[in-house]
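Below is one such record:
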Amino acid sequence: MGVMLIGVVSDTHGFYDPRVPPLLEGVEHILHAGDIGTGQIIEQLSEIAPVTAVRGNNDREGPESEFPEIETLELGGCRIYLTHIVKVPKDGDDAGLAPYLEHAADAVVFGHSHMAFYETRETEQLGGLTFFNPGAAGKRRFKVVPSIGLLELEPGRVEGWILVL
């Protein structure tokens, strides 16, 4: 099994940025970490690659509210824990890591804060656990520059990139 390239999008809030599809060219799967908003975003993304999505705190009605809050999936030999809101535990906070360790996750993918985040924690049980937030892909809000992410997965290795839109 070779390397698998995954696109990661979050917090579109109903806006499908035309800059997104070219950046996702060649990905084998897309993760949407919630706050999808209306407007066929998931359908449009699924024209690029299969999509796994979770709902965010703003996805309260319509088809977007039907997505689960948490999704765990196996991609490229890695276990991904996908949800909208994550409080990244401080170093040494093993209790904070517990939910992800229970799922034997290699990566935790989330959104909500609109701030891109990419960090790997060393854990005794698992080796590295990667926390990855692609930032917000929706219309520019606050002073945050819109962004998406890419993850390269192979068994035992997760590598990420943040792509500014």
